[in-house]
């Protein structure tokens, strides 16, 4: 007979919007084990599995801490109530929690004050209000109208059980917040429909809301005030402008508890992170999206279909697998998406640095040293280059009948810090390929990605300055003699880092706080990657300054935004990198 051997959940903490899929291990009649879903339509030996999910709703109302969502709240910020900030953000689990979070929390008050039209009200001092155990606040209840037609299963000891699902998987809703869930799994006789044997159950902790970071604003750098929250449904680019997002989303295979032990396990789990990342990416409403560290299986099963629902067409280039020795389906790569109503796909180029390494070694490395050279150069990194045609209003700014093309490169350069020569060579190889495209067409260029190179490094200098100083210390690491002479490390593309615009605008425009988030020596952000072990800038959006101009930029994060003593990823931000976004306008070009 079919027997349930084991049932468990990957995470004990359920989060609103994140699918729960229990692990159910079965023993078949032939004694073999399986995790297959044996449903009523395909029973085994006359038996199938029946699942039920319950919400266990207590008569006692519960508020959840906005900082530590697995903890019950004991304080409420009166300032949030008066400012009409969403009530969920007003709760804290202790006075220390409220005090530690104040630097971040006060931003909510400041933004709420800005949003209110000048009404003459003076700001009052903020205090924490204790929550009485008998407090009756309608915002703390679980709601009376669940999405699933709920039926009272039973009532006992001040608790009511509502049946909320009959599938193996369940996605908690806002109605479940503050309540525990119960999962039941039992073998059922297909003929009599009666349960057979023991009912296996799992009881979760209380459902918590998905933590939401403060929205990042789009800041004008062209002198026009367009500051506002990007996640507003009505935000659309100006006619002829378009936005580009670049984001290393942290592949699940790299997001281990050993590396990111400061991040709660539930917030590091892929079911949670994928939903949080999707909400963030969709909220930016970018016209072009360049993602790095996208696993092959996640692209096919999640990002491509989900972003398709939001009007995006998807292109993907998986890393090569000469070094990688894991499951081929989990190899990550670069994914580029574009809005079908704004652009159409013209051409796609794939850059495999392994192939370029083979060609290089065949051409310049002595036969006896080729194996050693390939071992150093072959690292599976790739780049995806896409040529798009604009559908919006400024096609042919200088010539109404001319097509407006844009070339977008998306790459993830090798991470190893002891292979600086490999990083420089990969960037140089990519730029030489882009030069060939530029030579064949009068086309604006965008070069996006995680370059694993800090500002001032040789790869960054090559991108931003078009050359590398022959005396640059990183050129000293060249065991294969592939970087010599240094004068060959040049390119003719007029590339400029989009975020350097923050450093170039005048203080009179009110950019002081954004300039403070920039490195004055390099004109780049202070960081785009923030972990316990490293904080610095690795990600960039470069553009061809002769054909594009930056109109606005997504504001950068700072210490207050990340909260005190916090690193990435976190419950609010699901990658160890931050997203970069720039709005561009095509310049009129001189007719040829």
Defining traits:
seven-stranded mixed β-sheet, globular, repeat, alpha+beta, 592 residues, exonuclease, CCR4/nocturin_mRNA_transcr, six-stranded mixed β-sheet, nuclease, 13 helices, RNA-binding
How does the SSE layout of this entry go?
Blueprint: E1 3-8, E2 23-27, E3 33-34, E4 47-58, E5 75-77, H1 78-82, E6 91-92, H2 95-100, H3 102-115, E7 128-130, E8 151-156, E9 159-165, E10 180-189, E11 195-206, E12 218-220, E13 241-248, H4 265-268, H5 270-284, E14 288-295, H6 296-308, E15 312-318, E16 332-339, E17 343-352, H7 353-364, H8 370-377, E18 382-390, E19 405-412, H9 420-440, E20 445-450, H10 458-465, E21 495-497, H11 501-504, H12 512-515, E22 518-519, E23 524-525, E24 529-530, E25 535-536, E26 539-544, E27 548-554, H13 559-562, E28 580-586
Parallel strand pairs: 13-14, 19-20
Antiparallel strand pairs: 1-2, 2-3, 4-9, 4-10, 5-6, 5-7, 8-9, 10-11, 12-27, 13-28, 14-16, 15-16, 17-18, 18-19, 20-26, 21-26, 22-23, 24-25, 27-28
Major β-sheet profile: 7 strands, mixed
Mean pLDDT: 86
Structural class: alpha+beta
Strand order of the largest sheet: 12-27-28-13-14-16-15
Distance between the termini: 79 Å
Tell the overall outline: globular
| Rg | 27 Å
Number of helices: 13
Number of separate strands: 28
Runs with pLDDT <50, length 5+? 117-150, 224-235
Helical content class: 10-25%
Range of strand content = 25-35%
